[in-house]
Design goal:
The protein has 92 residues and is mainly alpha-helical. The protein has 5 helices and no strands.
């Protein structure tokens, strides 16, 4: 749904403005969960994180590296959490 860039406006900015209204415990993780669900590209995920005021995924951070891998491989949230658990990292 949001993965294509068909010129219908900037979906990333619209989604980011929606997330700015959240007051959750870990908004960044919620954004990542939704990005995985909709199979967004890594570049869209990075843009979405920045536009919503969160740091981009950083490959030298072990948890972020696993998340990047899962996004690029279009893995499910369940598969990502399995990998995170194996590395003793916080689950999404």
């Amino acid at each position: 749904m949001y993965a294509n860039n068909s010129g219908q406006g900037n979906h990333s900015e619209q989604i980011a403005s929606f997330f700015k209204t959240w007051h959750g415990v870990d908004e960044r993780d919620e954004i990542l969960k939704i990005a995985l669900k909709y199979a967004l590209s890594l570049s869209h995920v990075q843009e979405l994180l920045l536009l919503s005021g969160h740091p981009k995924l950083y490959v030298r951070n072990p948890r972020d590296a696993v998340i990047i891998y899962s996004i690029v491989k279009q893995q499910s949230l369940e598969r990502l959490n399995l990998l995170l658990r194996e590395l003793n990292e916080k689950l999404l």
